Amino acid sequence: MELNSVKESVKESAETDVLIVGAGPTGLALAVDLARRGVRTTVAEKAERLFPGSRGKGLQPRTLEVFDDLGVIGEVLAASGPAPVQMIWKDGGRQGEHHMFDAVETTPAAPYAGTPRILPQWRTQEILYARLTGLGGEVSFGSALDSITQDTAGVTATLSTGATVRAAYAVAADGGSSTVRAALAVAMAGESVDPSSMLVADVRVPALDRLNWHVFPADAGFLALCPLPGTDDFQLAARFPDGERPDLSPDGVRALIAARTHLGAADVTEVLWASDFRPRAALADRFRDGRIFLAGDAAHVHSPAGGQGLNTSIQDAYNLGWKLGRVLRDGAPAALLDSYEEERRPNAAEMLGLSTRVHRGEQRRGAATQQLGIGYRGGPLSEGAAGALEAGDRAPDGPLDGGRPGSGRLFDAFRGPHFTLLSVGTDTVLPPLDPDAVHVHRLDAYEPYGKGLFLVRPDGYIGWAGDDATGLADYLTRC
Predict the structure, then answer these.
(1) Whose C-alpha in 147, 154, 196, 378 is 20 to 30 A from the C-alpha of 337?
(2) In this structure, how many other beta carbons lie within 10 angstroms of the beta carbon of residue 361?
(3) 135-174 b/e with 16+ CB inside 10 Å = b?
């Protein structure tokens, strides 16, 4: 299968459930989540193929848990690798190693904790795209958004192909310069994190070993070369003095490496992709306008420091996907969709602050940047507490049936579009529940949970918790 081939554009007039504008990681993750729920999507991407660069290369442990649920964790782990230790260089000599990340312990409750994984963004998108097409979905490449309007019953969009798409809902996943956000006149307030320009590029440098993330400090601005697993490539990142614009041409990239490292221009055998930007932090005033939602960079823009941007964007898609599925396929009240902005906007604001502090050297990369502590306590869909957890907390992993051979893990039980009710260390009587919508598992007492009843939402967070089932049935009517 040719992953980057141009697909046939959407038909002249198409009826769909959800129009997704943009086929980056956010749009593709959302499309995968909706496809497995039987929700029809049209994914419109203005480019003629998937994004070719490594840009968002760091995958945090919470994102790996999402990929586990979406059915792509095997491919992601096989194609990625742990973030390498940095090697500091000066005057052509190695000065010693630098550990960028504070150690975080992997436990049965958090199996993907530890060093973030490195995977070039183009490969992440290929994996998600392959999963989407395997579920029967597709992307309409070469289809830019020309206009979008909405009424009380749905959304109407016209594309550059001349096609008209009518959908129940639409999602803007079209990046920091979002056409959809501009059409909605949603403001995006922010600040410059660093006045200096940054260059990022994918290059091949056979003369440099791939055991370390190589860093070259310099008065003119640092330069770093990070090996990209599963490829022969390095991601080049370089900072420029205020006011200086990078030369993005292959010769310009080669000259930059030669000027700031011990390598020569001829050592750079290929320059595959290059881009520049100025680090900034910005947050949309709102994440929803009627039937249209903003997700990913269309809703929040991060400094790349700390690896929060792509990961926060994936969390947006994961939060919104199950809610759209419940409303469109399972008869949940439309008011459920109000919780998307209520939950995700404060979360995105918190991650923006974190990435800015990391960029400015005010905070180390560690437990906070791994996003395992993200939650929705006090949110509109969080009700109750029991044992060691409160509603809104991330649901920990662990052995499913006392660790008996072949019993699997809690993440196995959570995987899929359903809710999961865990009865942990208690034999309390449960009300009648729809077995298709709510899967029930009884466990012995387990320290990360304690004892009680825990209703795990389809996105892996505790929605409801209690010592008995009082209030459980009522909660489910709202979701």
Answers:
(1) 147
(2) 8
(3) bebbbbbbbebeebebeeebbbbebebebbbebbbbbbbb
Please write the tens of the pLDDT for every residue from 220-233: 788 999 999 999 99
Is it the case that residue 443 has pLDDT exceeding 70?
yes
Alpha helices in 199-268 (DSSP H): 250-260
CA distances from 426 to 70, 131, 214, 460 (A): 30, 38, 53, 21
Distance separating alpha carbons of residues 247 and 226, to the nearest angstrom: 20
Q: Is 150 in the same domain as 28?
A: yes
Tell me what pLDDT residue 263 has. Answer: 97
C-alpha span between 137 and 34 (Å, rounded): 10
pTM for this predicted structure: 0.94
Quickly count: other Cβ atoms within 10 Å of residue 379's Cβ. Answer: 18
477: region left, alpha or beta (phi > 0 left; psi from -120 to 50 alpha) = alpha
Say how far apart CA 338 and CA 475 lie, in whole Å: 16
* Shared domain check, 32 and 135: yes
Query: Do residues 288 and 185 share a domain?
Result: yes
Residue 355 has pLDDT above 90, yes or no: no
How far does Cα 40 stand from its chain's mean position? Answer: 21
pLDDT band of residue 3 (cuts 50, 70, 90) is very low
List the CATH number of the domain containing 387: 3.40.30.120
For 78-124, write each residue's pLDDT tens digit: 999 999 999 999 999 999 998 877 778 899 999 999 888 999 999 99
The total of other beta-carbon atoms located within 10 Å of residue 23's CB is 28
State whether 302 and 180 are in the same domain. Answer: yes
What is the Cα–Cα distance from 440 to 437, expressed in whole angstroms? 10
Residues 336 and 387 in one domain: no
* pLDDT, tens digit, 9 for 90 and up, residues 253-278: 999 999 999 999 999 999 999 999 88
Q: Are residues 46 and 139 in the same domain?
A: yes
Residue 107 lies in a domain: yes
CATH label of the domain that carries residue 241: 3.30.70.2450
When the pLDDT of each residue in the chain is averaged and rounded to a whole number, the result is 92
Q: Are residues 144 and 227 in the same domain?
A: no
Q: Kindly state whether residue 25 falls inside one of the protein's structural domains.
A: yes
User: Residue 206: which pLDDT band, with cuts at 50, 70 and 90?
Assistant: very high
Query: Are residues 22 and 132 part of one domain?
Result: yes
Range of 424's domain? 383-477
> At what angle are helices 61-70 and 25-35 packed, to 10 degrees?
40
Do residues 392 and 383 touch, judged by C-beta distance below 8 A?
Answer: no
